[in-house]
TrEMBL record:
Upper lineage: Archaea, Methanobacteriati, Methanobacteriota, Thermococci, Thermococcales
Short name of one Pfam family: DHODB_Fe-S_bind
Occurrences of domain FAD-binding FR-type (ranges): 1-96
EC number: 1.8.1.19
Tree of life domain: Archaea
Cofactor binding notes: Binds 1 [2Fe-2S] cluster per subunit.
InterPro entries (UniProt xref): Cyt_c3_hydrogenase_gsu, Dihydroorotate_DH_Fe-S-bd, FAD-bd_FR_type, FNR_nucleotide-bd, PyrK_electron_transfer, Riboflavin_synthase-like_b-brl
Keyword Iron-sulfur: yes
Alphabetized SUPFAM superfamilies for the sequence: Ferredoxin reductase-like, C-terminal NADP-linked domain, Riboflavin synthase domain-like
Alphabetically ordered keywords of this record: 2Fe-2S, Iron, Iron-sulfur, Metal-binding, Oxidoreductase
Protein name as catalogued: Sulfide dehydrogenase subunit beta
Cofactor(s) this protein requires: [2Fe-2S] cluster
Length: 280
């Protein structure tokens, strides 16, 4: 069993959770993800890793209350309780080496976790690290201690309405940094629509760009085909060949279309769960 060792609200939707999973924490490398099963018969939910502590064997994650399973996790699991399973690490690690000036951009929960985890490793590899984190507004932004600031040599926080930090999106800040000639490689995670725009921006300047392609996953091991993407004219599986890919080779329109496949079913499952709790 996988004991929960910390749980804390990050904003009105997202929360931090730390879980004991020594075999995963010791093997995890940046770029890889895990799959949580909160009950024996539950859904398998893929999660990015905020940190993996080899000594304590603990994993930190940022989790959004999105549908049935993540609401259940927030509502019914506390510190001291255990998850049924933490599978992983899954997927391919990214190459951690000296690139020069490394930027990580993010504007949604999985990207915020990866921003910290990736830049921490890149800083240890001797890179100059620049973090740009975008949130919708102050109410949907994280407490200071959960930002990627400590692992960034240069740090920018933006909100789309300007209620905290710089007004705007990471794309605006990144364009300015590129024009100042400060960017050797960009890593990114978060909203798929923004990653498509990111790919267009960095392609214009010829800057290598590696991003997380979040697709609906079922088994998470390359067996079911659910997470397939079109990549450089070939079929790849986000769970096995990614989830981080060269953003310039991804067919973004196909990725975005496939991401919406089960919205109706997910809404029905969430509604049933909330009704069972007397919430709606
Ligand atoms: C590589 C990767 C990393 C991710 N990292 C994070 C993270 O750090 N924090 C976070 O909050 N979310 C992350 N997600 C998205 C997260 O897995 C989904 O939000 C979550 O599975 C949906 O939970 P739910 O409560 O709506 O599930 P339910 O509606 O109960 O079940 C949904 C089922 O569909 C699948 N599913 C639904 N939406 C998604 C999705 N967007 N991506 C993949 N599978 C999905 C799940 O595997 C699950 O089996 C990540 C997804 C991927 C693929
Ligand atoms: S989740 Fe089944 S192939 Fe990737």
């Amino acid at each position: 069993m996988y004991r929960i060792t910390a749980k804390e609200e990050l904003d009105v939707r997202d929360f931090f959770m730390e879980v004991e999973a020594p075999h995963v924490a010791r093997a995890w490398k940046p770029g890889q993800f895990v799959v949580l099963l909160i009950h024996k018969k539950g859904e398998r939910i893929p999660m990015s890793v905020y940190y993996a502590d080899r000594e304590t064997g603990r994993l930190g994650m940022f989790i959004r209350r999105h549908g049935k399973t993540t609401f259940d996790l927030w509502d019914n699991f506390d510190v001291g309780d255990s998850l049924y399973a933490v599978a992983g690490p899954l997927g391919m690690p990214i190459e951690v080496k000296h690139y020069g000036n490394v930027v990580f951009v993010s504007d949604a929960v999985c990207g915020q976790a990866e921003n910290y985890a990736t830049l921490r490793a890149m800083k240890e590899a001797g890179n100059y690290t620049i973090s740009i984190q975008t949130f919708e507004d102050r109410a949907h932004s994280y407490p200071e201690k959960f930002l990627a600031k400590p692992v960034a040599d240069e740090y920018y926080l933006t909100t789309e309405d300007g209620s905290r930090g710089i007004k705007g999106h990471y794309l605006d800040v990144l364009r300015e940094l590129i024009e100042k000639d400060k960017v050797d490689i960009v890593f990114g995670g978060g909203k798929l629509g923004s990653l498509k725009k990111l790919a267009d921006l960095t392609r214009e300047y010829g800057i290598p760009t590696i991003v997380t392609v979040r697709q609906i996953m079922v088994d998470g091991t390359g067996m079911c085909g659910s997470c397939r993407i079109l990549y450089d004219g070939e079929i790849k599986f986000a769970c096995r060949d990614g989830p981080m890919f060269d953003a310039h080779k991804v067919d973004w329109d196909d990725v975005i279309r496939r991401d919406g496949r089960f919205v109706r079913e997910q809404e029905i499952a969430k509604k049933h769960y909330l009704e069972s709790k007397g919430v709606v």
